């Protein structure tokens, strides 16, 4: 398997800690990093990034199937996103994951972190070319909020393995407590985690007054806190449960200012309960699940 040199160097920079959201590693710590991946590699004192890049080239060269990453390389990426090495302002390592995905996407891969922090890798289908992505982006621009939720988000989450994907009733908004959707995910241990989705079709920003087609993060914060603080009824278990995590989903951009504003107003435990999915993430998820662009509802 051959990756572009610039992408291998980018991953090497993450391992060395030369980019934001990744811990800085000396030569000794780099050797320990690879040891944790099951590799007996010792840094020889040369330039850290170049040495790591050469090791990554060697690891990738053992796999000749383009649709499978070497197991050792998967271990390297998983170790790279270990939550025990979370940096300030990124407790769940979502920012680090976004940096990694910018490189992986360029090579046709997408990484997801499960609720326990485990890393999963998916091959992006070649069929999702630029024209397909443009068509989906056009749908996001033109669809209604209900179409965005019903025709796009729900099918994607079902494809990702979430169960009991249920839309909160829109007839009485007072009964929703900020939940657009609730669903559950069953872990391999058979433990169940519950998720809520607060979806907005457009952009989410932190401006005092949001522009047309955008939502203010203060409104999102109130709805997310209501979502996490109220129980839902799981008919399969015949009991009421609390939502463990909330996805804040936007069909447009979630600005850096909005994310920072939210982080400043939540303690660490609350921040770890909220996860963001913006337009670029939706496009990647649709590609990973091979989901076709939905059609707009008639009328």
TrEMBL record:
Top-level taxonomic group: Bacteria
Name of this chain's protein: Uncharacterized protein
Record lineage: Bacteria, Pseudomonadati, Pseudomonadota, Alphaproteobacteria, Rhodobacterales
